[in-house]
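Onboarding guide, step 5: your first structure request.
Type a short instruction followed by the sequence, for example:

Predict the 3D structure of this protein.
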Amino acid sequence: MNKKTLLATALAAAALCALPLLASCSGSSESAQPAEDGSYTLVEEGKLTVAASLDFPPFENLENGDVVGFEVDLMKAIAEKMGLECSYLPTMKFDTIIPAIVAGGTADVGVSGFTITPEREEEVDFSTPICDTNQCIVVPAGSDITDESQLAGKRIGAETGTTGLSWAKENLADAQEVVAFDEYPAVFAALQSGQVAAVVLDKPVADYYINIAYPDCQVVKEIPTGEQYGIAVSKKNPNLTAAIDQAIAELESDGTIAELDRKWFGTQA
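The system replies with structure tokens like these:
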């Protein structure tokens, strides 16, 4: 599994200092200015309401009706540092989460392995990066495909709205078709049934699905995309982003993040 790393306290502090600049660079005339008293708004008083696609293990997943995962534990720890209760909404489709944050009124933050990209930064603000990751190519076990150069003329699968889908569309121009699916179980089902010859997704997620549910599939290539995950927050709520960044810095400093890293990835940040 790609070793997950988290930024140190110094970087978190730097992100806090850069926050007003990031907001001003968005090009949005509706970007809010930070309140001088540091206050922020919440959908429900006393709660940090989280929107997520709960098919993204080991970051978010439903197990016996409970929401579990690295980001789930992290969001709970962040909320505790902020003196709030963490409340996850019912699962949402991945590509609907950022629009929901932009619209407001549904959730305070969005998670599910959101890679920080310039396109997404035009719509929302992001917290200090919480994870480094790459994409990968997954095929059925025993497939003769070992590289993207062998995907010409074949159908490729990915989840809707993901950077895996974007990478496939940008880099597999010779593919017969790049097919988008709403959830990762549907992506893997299509691979198992032969609807697609290969799928592209985040490597930690691919490793988890293969180890837990799809042992007849295999990662054949890790793609060094150098992505970083962040927590999505409305541009109208800059002090909430700042408060989350401060909580991340404190969790890094007190060792909580290292504990979560060992729990979910068997490594230390």
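Each response can be followed by summary notes, for example: The CA atoms of residues 15 and 21 lie 10 Å apart.
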